Amino acid sequence: MKVDVFAYGILMYEEVLFTLTGKHFSLEPATLHHHHRFGLVKEGFPELAVVLPKKNASVSGVVIRDVDSQTLRILDLFEDVDGIYARSPMSVTLASGKDMNAVIYLGTEKAKTIARGAWDEDEFIRLHYKRYIDAAIPDFLNEIKNT
Fold it and tell me: What is the pTM assigned to this prediction?
């Protein structure tokens, strides 16, 4: 069974998805309402994005279409940073205005304790993106080969 995944952080980038999965996906712009994208401050990690509920706020991102179970397993492992994220079903609004159901890696109660301000996407791209593509993701994939 395939699912659609709403991505709002580094999973929004085709290169990241391909490096993680070896697959290309259709990406569609979308918005998650009543949530805010915070920066996640965790020792040993660059500041990552986490989404938490917040009235009158919205988060732009993309829907990754038709994610298969093998890919979802990889994304689940990649996003489970010490229990900071949990995969949750949500309703998102596509750029066309149509609402649809998707799953999202939503911040948990633990994430609330280390979320600070808004995530600075430009700073992440400038300072950390290349390292994720060249080292962090390949290292992660080597680690999960043994699981």
Answer: 0.92
